Amino acid sequence: EISSLGEKDILVLRLDLTDRSSHEAATSTVLKHFGKIDVLVNNGGRSQRSLFVDTNLDVYNAIIELNYLGTISLTKHVLNHMIQRKKGKIVTVSSVMGIMGAPLATGYCASKHALQGFFNSLRTELTDYPEISIINICPGPVQSKIIQNVFTENLAKSIENSGDQSHKMPTDRCARLTLVSTANNLKEAWISDHPYLAVCYLWQYAPTWAWWLMNRMGKKRIQNFKSGL
After folding, report:
1. Residue 192 backbone phi and psi in degrees, to 5
2. What is the number of domains present in the chain?
3. Euclidean distance between CA atoms 175 and 161, whole angstroms
4. Residue 107 resides in a domain
């Protein structure tokens, strides 16, 4: 398919979510180029793979700075513009970890729970702007480089074994379902294959069973982690 996009239709900016002082200027640059922002997709973040008892608190600070504070900082500047226009979509890639808990990801889960709480609350503050949509996307395991770039027990250490990713949802399918969710203004979308999707439903509707199951699954997961798998 031949694209109809020209050079003026594309602008790529380097952006550091942790450099919050740069977010206003970046937003202004985009507005100067395009004249408006229709959709903001918050898709920056890092996961974690370490046990809490072994993990330096600096790691938790870094996760919150990047995944949570960086996201809401950028959102703040873009939302100011959308409120002026009374129109826009703010799409945030949260995670199924935003609605459940899992071992080896205490800080990551916490940051995603924070995003869920923030955007669900923000939505209630925007009732006077019915054409501004707050959309939370909660993917399960998806093929990406997220594992190669996870936080570990200290900031200087990288993961040694990223494992097999073939069982995870293909990246293009997750992207397509995210676009479908955005086009239809879904407040929240769980994008995952089974059995992970079934666990989401358990966690939502039968939490006592979910806690029991996660304790069983978590024990095996921790054993595999300690064995280097």
Report:
1. -160, 155
2. 1
3. 26
4. yes
Picking from 70, 87, 68, 66, the residue whose alpha carbon sits closest to that of residue 23 is 70
Tens of pLDDT along 16-28? 999 999 999 999 9
Please indicate, yes or no, if residue 206 is contained in any of the structural domains. no
Residue 207 falls inside a structural domain: no
Closest CA to 76 of 122, 12, 19: 122
How many angstroms separate the Cα of 109 from the Cα of each of 96, 113, 129, 201? 9, 6, 30, 17
Measured distance CA(173)–CA(181) in Å, rounded:
12
pLDDT at 46: 95
The CATH number given to whatever domain includes residue 59 is 3.40.50.720
174-204 pLDDT, tens digit each: 999 999 999 999 999 999 999 999 999 999 9
For the chain, the maximum distance between any two Cα atoms, rounded to a whole number of angstroms, is 54
Is 108 catalytic? The answer is yes
Gap between the Cα atoms of 187 and 91, Å rounded: 9
Residue among 60, 68, 108, 129 flagged as catalytic: 108
Residue 212 lies in a domain: no
Backbone angles phi, psi at 92, to 5 degrees: -120, 125
Q: What is the residue type of 202? A: L
The pLDDT confidence band at residue 162, using thresholds 50, 70 and 90, is low
